[in-house]
Design a protein that fits this description.
12 helices, binds glycine, Dehydroquinate synthase-like, alpha domain, two-stranded antiparallel sheet, binds nicotinamide-adenine-dinucleotide
Length: 361
């Protein structure tokens, strides 16, 4: 195993470590201190199980280890699939001291966390994220959920894990498109809160695209540092945490318009971040040069930099109106005051927004 970096999400009695390193899953005993009882249920899916399940369970010889293998895909992130987790827990007589382990990307992580929040009114769980998006974003911060036919992530809970174990070696098997989608969330941290990291990303974009291990380890660490700091300040998104949604209002509208079929989440977020940057420029906050830097970096990561042509402004506005950040009917957006400084605001000219949504860049 190479170096293991440990960060902390500082939430008082709910604090927990994030361990980041190559080959962590093969480290004997790494998971054991975070498991209090004798029972474990590993939740994973049909794609990840053949790749990493055996490695994980081999590290838990002294436990009753059960597994549940879910179907793969966002379309299965629902209450029916959640029930498969509860079925297995009850069939195998798991008690209140059991620990659930989420082995997978954001879909498995969000569902396992929500199952842990609900089973017998709350049991422990551990995040073992295996996508870049999950390692830099979804496994940290305790947002857990399933989708409802009428809205994404609408049924869920804030529920923190005991620890996050991000083995960067697992990213070796991640398809390129999924990897690039995760890079969008990495770039997000530079834009919202860490201008130095943005500069570093510009210099290291080629190394990241080549999945160079040191560059990747730095990107995961720096992203998690930013996320941990923001979540520690605002666990339940009463304020600052909302900046983590830069580009998401535009991005969710793109995903919904395409019925979650065409673009991956990170791809839609990438386009949404350029749109948010352009609106910030139109408002006189961001310089043209900085807005172009953002677009160039995302293009270098082979991510889309604007919404597809077939979504008109009216559809966009209608879809953005159901965003979770809408308060009392007022649309709030995450915009950039400058590179590395995001704000959540409703203080923008709606004509400006309409002009932006009508332009095809
Ligand atoms: P995902 O979980 O669907 O994983 C993407 C694909 O990669 C899947 O087919 C999966 O089986 C496969 N895969 C995972 N790890 C692999 C590996 N190591 N090798 C090969 N294939 C692998 O998607 P995602 O992008 O990880 O997560 C998206 C989900 O995360 C969405 O549901 C979104 O709502 C949620 N999310 C949650 C938060 C949060 O804070 N909780 C934040 C962002 C996103
Ligand atoms: N991904 C947004 C958040 O965790 O708040």
């Amino acid at each position: 195993m190479s170096t293991c970096i440990t960060l902390t999400v500082d939430l008082g009695e709910r604090s927990y470590p994030i361990l980041i390193g190559a080959g962590l899953l093969k480290t004997p005993g790494l998971l054991v201190p975070y498991i209090s009882g004798s029972q474990v249920l590993v939740v994973t899916n049909e794609t990840i199980a053949p790749l990493y399940l055996e490695q994980l369970t081999a590290a838990l010889p002294a436990h009753q280890v059960d597994t549940v293998i879910l179907p793969d895909g966002e379309k299965y992130k629902n209450l029916d699939t959640l029930n498969l987790i509860f079925d297995r827990l009850l069939e195998q007589r798991h008690n209140r001291t059991t620990t659930l382990i989420a082995l997978g990307g954001g879909v498995v992580g969000d569902m396992t966390g929500f199952a842990a929040a609900c089973y017998q009114r709350g049991v422990n769980f551990i995040q073992v994220p295996t996508t870049l998006l999950a390692q830099v974003d979804s496994s940290v911060g305790g947002k857990t959920a399933v989708n409802h036919p009428k809205g994404k992530n609408m049924i869920g809970a804030f529920y923190q894990p005991q620890c996050v174990i991000a083995d960067t070696t697992t990213l070796d098997t991640l398809p390129d498109r999924e990897y690039r989608s995760g890079l969008a969330e990495v770039v997000k941290y530079g834009l919202i809160a860490d201008a130095d990291f943005f500069n570093w990303l510009e210099l290291n974009a080629d190394a990241l695209m080549a999945r160079q291990p040191e560059a990747l380890a730095t990107a995961v660490r720096r992203s998690c540092e930013n996320k941990a700091r923001i979540v520690s300040q605002d666990e339940r998104e009463g304020g600052i945490r909302a900046i983590l949604n830069l580009g998401h209002s535009f991005g969710h509208a793109i995903e919904t318009a395409q019925s979650y079929c065409d673009w991956l989440h990170g791809e839609a977020v990438a386009a949404g971040m350029v749109m948010a940057a352009e609106l910030s420029r139109l408002l006189g906050w961001l310089s043209l040069a900085d807005r172009q830097r953002i677009e160039r970096l995302l293009a270098k990561c082979q991510l889309p930099t604007w919404a597809p042509d077939n979504i008109d402004a009216k559809t966009f506005i209608a879809l953005m109106a159901v965003d979770k950040k809408v308060l009392d009917g007022t649309l709030r957006l995450v915009l950039l005051k400058s590179l590395g400084h995001a704000v959540v605001t409703s203080d923008f000219d709606t004509d400006c927004l309409s002009r932006l949504l009508s332009s095809k860049e």
